[in-house]
Each structure stands twice: as C-alpha cells, then as structure tokens.
Specification:
CATH superfamily: Vaccinia Virus protein VP39
Function: Catalyzes the formation of N(7)-methylguanine at position 46 (m7G46) in tRNA.
Number of strands: 7
Structural class: alpha/beta
CATH class: Alpha Beta
Number of helices: 9
Catalytic activity: guanosine(46) in tRNA + S-adenosyl-L-methionine = N(7)-methylguanosine(46) in tRNA + S-adenosyl-L-homocysteine
Strand order of the largest sheet: 3-2-1-4-5-7-6
Keywords: Methyltransferase, S-adenosyl-L-methionine, Transferase, tRNA processing
Helix content: 25-40%
Protein name: tRNA (guanine-N(7)-)-methyltransferase
CATH topology: Rossmann fold
Distance between the termini: 26 Å
Pathway: tRNA modification; N(7)-methylguanine-tRNA biosynthesis
Largest sheet: 7 strands, mixed
Number of domains: 1
Order of helices and strands: HHHEHEHEHEHEHEHE
C-alpha cells in the first residue's frame, strides 16, 4: 500500500541569470517566486502508498476533486505518469459504482455518521485498508474472505486505476473504494465499526521534520482507534526501521495493545510490489499486529 481514505505543484525558484539578464533582475525574479512559496503545512507531499511520482500534470477528466482536509496531509501528488487507455476506461466505467456516497464534504457537509451497511448493501464485517497502493493486497484479501466487506482508501489516481483492473480480473464484489483522504472516511464512520485495518508499506517520510506527516501519529491513530471494534486488529507492514519504531511507540499511546512484532509475515499475507522492491534493494520487511482492547 503506498493502504477508509486524496494537484499540487512546487514553485520553481530562479536559478540565476544564466548570462542573459543582469543579476539584479534575476534576484528580483527569485524574490518574487520565493514569496509565492507555500508554508510547510500546505506544501506538496508524497503519496501515502509510495506511488511513483513524475512531472506529468493531472487532468480534470481523470482525477476526482481533492477534498480539503483539516490536518496535515500525508500525501501530495494525486496522479503520476499518463494512464493507459484501459486504465482510463476503468476509471470512467467502474469507479463511480464502487465509490460510497456520503463521505465527501460535498455529499455530507454536516459530517453525518454513515451506516456502514449502506456502503455495500449488506451487513458483514468491515475491513479497512489505508493506502492500498496498486491494490494487490486488497483484492487478495477480498478473494480470500468473501464474507467480509473491504473499503480501501487511496488518493493516488494511478493506484486506483490499477486496483480497478485487478477487481475486474478477480471478479470480486465485496470491495469499495474511496479515491481520496482516509480522514474523510474516518470522520463519518461510526465508533467501533471496523473489524480489521491494514497499513502496508506507507510512505516513509524519511526526513525527521516530516515524521509528523506519517500515519502513525496521534491524530490519525486516535481516529482509527475510535472506529475499530473492540478486539479488532491493526496490521502494519514496513521496510523502514524507524517507521516501525514510531509505530511501536505511538500505537500503544493511542490505546492499542501490541500483539506481535515479527520479521515473518502473516499466514494470509500477499507480498506486494513495494515489498518486492524493498527486498531487491536490500531492505528487511517488518510486521506488527496491534489490537484494540
């Protein structure tokens, strides 16, 4: 996942006159552009699920409107390289029917609490994947567990398109997609409604000053704790040692109990493309299971 769950561009700074303009002009240009730079809280951020980032601009016909979260974002660009024609077809034909209503601030400005059963049209245990990346883990879990409903959140539209293709191929029907910020989902779900949650290979936010943008921080963990049912599992998989260290510190503070911390994955685990990339590059996967008492 890089996974219930949202265009940005950096200001370019003047790099000097390059011999074409007097230094005074270049300095003025640099000052003008520097003054346009956004504060840290509004700067573009990486995607939660380590989605590939390029300079390709997003287009209104493929990227749903981005919600306006109140907390610091833990994602940034919502699109990457140009999607294939088949992926654009998945977005145009399949996404709307798999996207729950009542989650966006436009649909639900009063933030009324939803009935989870209405999302899928049936009552069943509800699982949540935060940042499903390319969707392989989510589809794998849906196929293995047809008796549960799985809601996945992912702001990166290319990842959403990849998931939609996998859903078609697998023929699973017990999934729903929020192509945006998981915080919008957590705001409108009732307390204690999630039976299991997954956070697989989230964006590591390596720089110390960016650690506050990680999902394993008090605000996000507290919101997740509220919607988890008593006894529900929260699984974390990462290849970044200090990310897991932060999870092991912050999750108990939010009320979670640590059940297991291990170097081997769960029995029902499907190794994702991000895990395979980590292994190729010599990083060691790390897994933790927390539980809401």
């Amino acid at each position: 996942m890089r996974g219930l769950v949202f265009s940005f561009s950096l200001a370019k700074y003047a790099g000097g006159c390059g011999g074409r303009s007097p230094p005074r002009v270049a300095s003025a240009q640099a000052e003008a552009k520097s003054s346009q730079r956004m504060p840290l809280d509004r700067e573009p951020l990486c995607t939660l699920s380590r989605s590939p980032m390029t300079e390709s601009p997003e287009t209104p016909d493929t990227v749903p409107p981005a919600p306006q979260p109140e907390w610091r974002n833990f994602y940034g660009r919502r699109s990457g390289k140009t999607m294939r024609a088949s992926q654009k077809t998945y977005i145009s034909e399949d996404l709307a029917s798999l996207t729950p209503g009542g989650i966006s601030k436009e649909d639900n400005p009063g933030r009324e609490i939803l009935d989870p059963g209405t999302i899928f049209g049936k009552d069943a245990p509800l699982w949540l994947e935060v940042g499903f990346g390319g969707g392989e883990h989510m589809v794998h879990m849906a196929a293995r567990n047809p008796g549960v409903n799985i809601l996945g959140c992912e702001p990166f539209i290319n990842g959403v398109a990849m998931l939609l293709g996998k859903i078609r191929a697998a023929g699973v029907s017990n999934v729903a997609i929020w192509p945006g910020d998981v915080r919008d989902v957590m705001e409108v779900l009732p307390e204690g409604c999630i039976a299991k949650a997954f956070l697989n290979y989230p964006d590591p936010w390596h720089k110390r000053r960016h650690h506050r943008r990680r999902f394993v921080t008090p605000g996000y963990l507290g919101a997740l704790f509220r919607i988890l049912a008593p006894g529900a599992e929260f699984r974390v998989a990462t290849d970044i040692p200090n990310y897991m260290e932060q999870a092991l510190i912050e999750a108990p503070k939010a009320g979670f109990a640590l059940i297991a911390h291990q170097a081997t994955p769960w029995d029902d685990w499907l190794s994702t493309r991000y895990e395979q990339k980590a292994l190729r590059e010599g990083r060691v996967p790390d897994y933790a299971t927390f539980r809401k008492p």
